[in-house]
Amino acid sequence: MRVFNFSGGKTSAYMVIHYYQPGDLVIFCDTGREHEKTYKFINDFEAFEKIPIIRLKYEGGFERLIEKRKAIPNQFKRFCTIELKIKTCRRYLRSLGLLKYENFVGFRYDEPLRVKRRKQMWKQVIDRFPLFDDKIDKAQINNYWINKPYTLEIPSILGNCTLCFMKGKNAIMAILREHPELAELWIKDEQQTRHTYFKDVSIKQLLTISQNNLFSNHLSDIQPAFDCACTT
What we know:
Helix content: 40-55%
Distance between the termini: 23 Å
Strand order of the largest sheet: 3-2-1-4-5
Number of strands: 5
Strand content: 5-15%
Order of helices and strands: EHEHEHHEHEHHHHH
CATH superfamily of the largest domain: HUPs
Number of domains: 2
CATH class of the largest domain: Alpha Beta
């Protein structure tokens, strides 16, 4: 059995389109914190490509997870990715009786460190990196989507969780400069748990700073500060 990790971004969508075979499972694990246009892209993908997406969600979503943990994740304790994506997917596959399968991950040729750092979590699960193996990089993927009748209608920095701490403080401030409305849920997390996503500053403070400063870079030019297992 072959399982594709679909993040709702252009890279993982490209991977599915080019390597999917009938009978494969394509899984999107929804954290509930993705941008609304990510969900639109997933709907468009299914409509145009005729490839079914299995949509999974941790019971209660992101909010329930931090309530259960009585804490919020950060760069050093990334239990969000582990619980909301990796283990949620694993539980579903085990419910189908699937313990042994090939796990397709959308790491590109220009992301060798992500491939190198990827840890094999289960002995019977073999990770595959078809984009890396076939030397597919970001430029090739972007060129591919230019001629498609649909695409992801947001800059890549807004992919995955909108204000993920792995994007870094500068990226988050740039995002909030253009989309201050995205801060609400993340501020609520910090207020309810009395913890912050960053050691020295809160999301509320980053929001204030973002509204008082000019950012010259367009969101399409901004890259995450750190790599995450949540593929784009």
